[in-house]
Amino acid sequence: MKKVIYLIFSLVFIANVSNSQNKVMSSNYSIFENTMVDMPWSEIENAKDSGAIVLISVGVIEEHGPHMSCGTDLYMAHLGNYLLKTELEKKGVKVLIAPPIYWGIADITRGFPGTFTVSKETMKSLYLDVFKSLENWGFKYAFLNNEHGEGKHNEILKEIVKEINSTMDIKAILQLNQNEAKGNEDICVPVHVPPMPRQGGGVHADGGETGIMAAIFPNLVDTLMADSLIASDYDLRNKFNTPGEAGQAWEANAREVTPLGYFGDPANYKESKKYAYDWYLKIAQNASNAITEYLKNENYTWLK
Questions:
Q1: Dihedrals phi, psi of 172, to nearest 5 degrees
Q2: How would you list the strands of the sheet with 171-177, edge to edge?
Q3: Among 267, 198, 208, 197, which Cα is nearest to 232's?
Q4: 17-28 burial string, b = 16+ CB within 10 Å, else e?
Q5: N or C end: fewer C-beta atoms under 10 angstroms in the chain?
Q6: How far apart are CA 218 and CA 210, in angstroms?
Q7: Which of 203, 189, 201 is nearest to 141 (CA)?
Q8: Torsion angle of C-alpha atoms 128, 133, 138, 144, degrees rounded to 10
Q9: Which candidate, 82, 75, 40, 78, places its Cα nearest to that of 61?
Q10: How would you classify residue 198: left for phi > 0, otherwise alpha for psi between -120 and 50, otherwise beta?
Q11: What is the pTM of this model?
């Protein structure tokens, strides 16, 4: 009888593990999960004394259409760091995930309720204060995973990282894809990012982002509404001569150009949903390799 009970328990456990690999954080989607926020200070200090590096999820709180959470950028960044932590620890790197930083520049969609944007001065001061705390505690390396693509936000982020590295005894390193890394080698690790599962050439809250969120954070996506949404591309073709012209107009006044807050085809999310987890896992593995190589060059002594 005991053997039967043990067998049943084992099968249930294996099924749960397998399921969790396909639905990471789908039941408990807190962006504080597995971060410093849920740890006592003594564990944080012990990790620091063991040579822990810090991962920071970066983004903004910003509208993502009528069908998706305004926290999409942060949830996706947190997913990336959640998986990256696991990959790095396989290599012997001790990792802590800091609380996410979600105050930044979101000027393009500022006309929508739910989009928070701050000034350059506020953003800069906040980041410098966060890194000053990490420096005071004795951490030496912090890698930033940014999921917000707005140009102004990203340029300010690069300025901030350069200032941290020139004024503090802690290194701030951006995780940038292989294309963005060119010209920024002094402040980043280049990460090979496969083509995004983004259907229809969309820009914002399209099929790609909708599919990723539907796969990993299903409680934060209304897929029935997504199914009913008409691709904004069709409307834009009648108003603008080229995609570039449409993009410029959207950046100038997103609320007018895309009244519902999405730019692309949210209904075309099903293919992205199928391979969202594997895509993020592959990026995490690539980022792990890039960070490990960086730490080797820094003579980081805790690698396996």
A1: -100, 130
A2: 95-97, 53-58, 141-146, 171-177, 188-191
A3: 267
A4: eeeeeeebbeee
A5: N
A6: 10
A7: 189
A8: -50
A9: 75
A10: beta
A11: 0.88
* 3-class DSSP assignment, residue 124: helix
Q: Which residues sit opposite 176 in a β-bridge?
A: 190
Read off the tokens for 255: 């609320």
Structure-token match 């539907």, residue found: 214
Distance between CA 87 and CA 251 in Å, rounded?
A: 36
pLDDT of residue 28: 57
Task: Looking at the structure, give the CATH architecture of the domain made up of residues 28-194+278-297.
Answer: 3-Layer(aba) Sandwich (3.40)
Residues of 284-296 as b/e, b for ≥16 C-beta within 10 angstroms? bbbbbbbbbebbe
Which stretches in the chain have pLDDT values below 70?
1-28, 197-201, 234-235, 237-238, 303-304
pLDDT at 240: 79
**Could you tell me the two tokens for 203?**
């820009």
Query: pLDDT value at position 242?
Result: 76
Q: What is the pLDDT of residue 201?
A: 61
Residue spans of the domains in the chain: they are 28-194+278-297
Contact 109, 261 (CB under 8 A): yes
* Residues 55, 84 contacting (CB under 8 angstroms): yes
In angstroms, the CA 63 to CA 267 distance is 17
Q: Is 196 exposed, middle or buried (0-12, 13-18, 19+ CB in 10 A)?
A: middle
Look at the block and give the residue holding tokens 């449409």. 246
**Could you tell me if 73 and 59 are in contact, meaning their C-beta atoms sit under 8 angstroms apart?**
yes
